[in-house]
Amino acid sequence: MNPIPSPIVGTVVRLAEVGTRLAPGEPAVVLESMKMEHPVALDGGEVLAVHVAPGDVVEPGTPLVELAPIDAADAPVEPEVDNGGVRADLAEVRHRHEIGLDDHRESSVQKRHERGFRTARENIEALIDPGSLIE
Fold first, then answer.
1. Quick check: 40 and 30 in contact, CB under 8 A?
2. Are 13 and 34 in contact (CB under 8 A)?
3. Bridge-partner residues for 10, per DSSP?
4. In angstroms, rounded to a whole number, what is the distance separating the alpha carbons of residues 27 and 31?
5. Share of the chain above pLDDT 90, in %
6. Region 4-68: CATH code
7. Claim: this prediction has a pTM higher than 0.70
8. Regarding predicted confidence, which is higher, 57 or 131?
9. Cα-atom radius of gyration of the chain, to the nearest Å?
10. Rounded to the nearest 5 degrees, what angle is found at the Cα of 7, between the Cα atoms of 29 and 53?
11. Edge to edge, what strands does the sheet with 10-15 contain?
């Protein structure tokens, strides 16, 4: 197997141990560069050899790890995610955002209209093309 080279200058933050089986999308190595983390070797496979250690500073082209492809039947299985319903935490966030919309502030909107004013959203709608702003 050919070692996977570092694509950038960076510091090794995390890496998989020899013998670890990685699912596709799971990084074998994570490098830090310019205060950002960069995952490396996302194709999955079994880690055969590790050429660096956490804390090592690597240059582009430095060998990081060697991976052996694994059969699809032997690959780690990612858990099924049910996207059919809305998660409870997302529903709570959506509800909190809706509270501030004009549709849920009828008394405040009515007071603005009684004084001859529009709401902020109505002012924005008067200034822009319909459908050009998504809140």
1. yes
2. no
3. 58
4. 10
5. 50
6. 2.40.50.100
7. no
8. 57
9. 26
10. 35
11. 36-40, 29-33, 10-15, 57-58
The residues, any chain, with a CB within 8 Å of residue 65's CB and separated by 6 or more, are 3, 4, 15, 16, 28, 29, 41, 47, 48, 49, 50, 51, 52
Q: Is the CB of residue 23 less than 8 Å from the CB of residue 75? A: yes
- Please state the length of the chain: 135
- 74: Cα separation from own chain's centroid: 27
Distances (CA, A) of 5 to 9, 16, 17, 43: 11, 15, 17, 14
- Which residues are 4's β-sheet partners? 65
Q: Both tokens of residue 43?
A: 């194709």
Q: Residue 6 corresponds to which amino acid?
A: S
Six-digit token pair at 38?
């960069």
* Rounded CA separation 16/22 (Å): 8
Domain boundaries, given as residue ranges, for the chain = 4-68, 88-127
For the record, the structure tokens of 11 come out as 């510091």
Residue written as token pair 């603005």: 112
Burial of 45 (0-12, 13-18, 19+ CB in 10 A): buried
Q: Above 70 in pLDDT, residue 70? A: yes
